[in-house]
Amino acid sequence: MRYLFWRIGVFIAAAVWPLLWLYQAWADVLGPDPGKVLVDRLGLGALVLLLITLSMMPLQKLTGWSGWIAVRRQLGLWCFAYVVLHLSGYTAFILGFDWSQLGIELRKRPYIIVGVLGFLGLLALAVTSNRYSQRHLGVRWKRLHRLVYVILGLGLLHMLWIVRADLREWAIYASIGALLLVLRLPPVTRRIPRLIVKKVPSARKA
């Protein structure tokens, strides 16, 4: 397997954060409501992983190193895992496994519906992320996986609805997401390698 140590490093980096947060909750250092803190951190972690996943293609274009693309699928699956943990934490710590409260929560907090839609989109991408699905679906596979852009929009809307009182942090993630989407536009993507080529002669002259 190519880039074995790189893949292992990414796996460890993604796995360590939920374990650390669970330890902090066990050690009672997350404040009076550790369950809510865990849910919030897992949700934000999922958004960060989604942004990192989307950054792999621009990084590959900029550097020419195929190792970025080699871990893209793994990062996408980790994003899905964080969302599953986020929803599981919400069910356990917020609802207390009391499903009768779900209707009340949906009326009070409609952003939950947006989050569930994002989860369903990620579920579709995770289920079809294997090579068999890629071969079986063909061109339709690429069309399906463009759903990631919609998922990013849903994730940002979900976060915006939650942090309406303080938009500074949200604006940072939204700006990064917008930049990554612009970098994936075909006219911009075609110009990225040209920027690198222009820098090479000047470096040789120096």
> What letter string, H or E per element, gives the SSE order?
HHHHHHHHHHH
Overall 3D geometry? globular
Which runs of at least 5 residues are low in confidence (pLDDT < 50)?
Answer: 197-206
Oligomer designation: single chain
Number of strands: 0
The radius of gyration is 19 Å
- Based on helices, strands and strand pairing, what is the structural class? mainly alpha
Number of domains: 1
Q: First CA to last CA: what distance?
A: 39 Å
Please work out how many helical segments DSSP would assign: 11
Task: Report the biggest beta sheet as strand number plus sense, adding barrel if it closes.
Answer: none
Helix fraction bin: over 70%
| Strand content range | under 5%
Q: Kindly state the mean pLDDT as a whole number? A: 88
